[in-house]
Structures are given as C-alpha cells and as structure tokens.
Amino acid sequence: MSDSLNKIAFGGGCHWCTEAVFQSLKGVQKVEQGFVASTEKNHTFSEAIIVHFNANLISQKVLIEIHLYTHNSTSNHAMLNKYRSAIYTLSKKQAIEAKQSLSELQHEFDQRLITQVYPFFEFKSSDQRYINYYIKNPNKPFCKNHITPKLRLLLSQFMKHVDVKKLGGAVKP
C-alpha cells in the first residue's frame, strides 16, 4: 500500500462496536460508521465501517487481525445478512493482500474463519445520532456489555497499536 492515507471497510457484528474498536487505534485517522454493500449476492447493505488509515503507522494486515479478534469471525450465525463478517476492499491489490492475510491468520483460530473478502461497492452513513456511539454513551448498558469488553481485549492483545488518548475515560489500560 502507498504512503498516503488508505481506506478499507470492515463488517462484523454491530457497527457501534466496530467503530469504537477502530477509532482507538494509532494510525487510524477517521472511521465512518454505516452500511456497506458489495456486488452480486452481497449487494444488500449490512452494518460496517470504513477505516481511513496511514499505512506507515498501522498495516492493513494488523487491521485485519484486530478485526478478526474483535468480532465473531468464526460463527455462521443466523444474522449474517445484517452482520456480514467481511473485509470490503477498494482495489484488486488490496483484495489479494486481504485474502493472503486471512490465510496467514487462520492458524491462530481453532475454528474456520468465515470472514470473506468482497469488493466495496456502496456506503450509506448511519444516522447522525448513532455516529461515535461509544464515545457519546460509554456508560449505557449496551456499551458496557458489548463494546467495553472488545476494547479491553484490544488493550490486552494489541496494546502497541492502541492510542490510549482515543479511548476516553471509560476503559483504562
């Protein structure tokens, strides 16, 4: 990837959770929360985020690894249309690298990864009241029960990639 700002999109579980995880990372400049559609059979929108990142500070492979560990990337659950476990790529090169990363990271998981690589096609932003959900509502039950544990996992497994100032006061290292 080039030295300039890069983009990649991730889907996996609730986009409030995914947004909070990726907002906390060094090298991530911006996270857009909403719904992503791909092409063909995955043309319907599912919850996802677009991550704008500086590849000099955090690699695409590290972003993918964090994505796999912070959502249920091995469960073939019934809500896969709404919560698609996916990496949405914006170029053929990015897709090749994403597939290679999935292959290399599979050995870290006991079960088969269900996360798929799809071409990015379209994005719809979430309603403004849901953007930065965790930052605005860290003490709400959903945040405490679902997002805070993901941020704690992030701190325990990926601390060197976390910008503690971005976490706010809800989760401490």
Automatic annotation (TrEMBL):
Residues 7-143 form the Peptide methionine sulphoxide reductase MsrA domain. This is peptide-methionine (S)-S-oxide reductase. Gene3D superfamilies: Peptide methionine sulphoxide reductase MsrA (3.30.1060.10). One of its GO terms (molecular function) is peptide-methionine (S)-S-oxide reductase activity. Its EC number is 1.8.4.11. Keywords: Oxidoreductase. It is an enzyme of class 1 (oxidoreductase). InterPro entries: Met_Sox_Rdtase_MsrA_dom (IPR002569), Met_Sox_Rdtase_MsrA_sf (IPR036509). It catalyses: L-methionyl-[protein] + [thioredoxin]-disulfide + H2O = L-methionyl-(S)-S-oxide-[protein] + [thioredoxin]-dithiol; [thioredoxin]-disulfide + L-methionine + H2O = L-methionine (S)-S-oxide + [thioredoxin]-dithiol.
